[in-house]
Amino acid sequence: MPHAVSVTLAALAVGGQAACAALLVAGLLALAGRPALLGLARSWLWGYELWLVFLIAATTTGGSLFFSEIAGYVPCELCWFQRICMYPLSIIALLAALADDHRIARYLLPLPIVGAGLAGYQLLVENGVVTQSQACSVSAPGGCATKWIEEFGYMTIPGMALTGSVLAFALLLFATFESGAAAEEAR
Question: Where are the domains of the chain?
Answer without folding.
Answer: 2-186
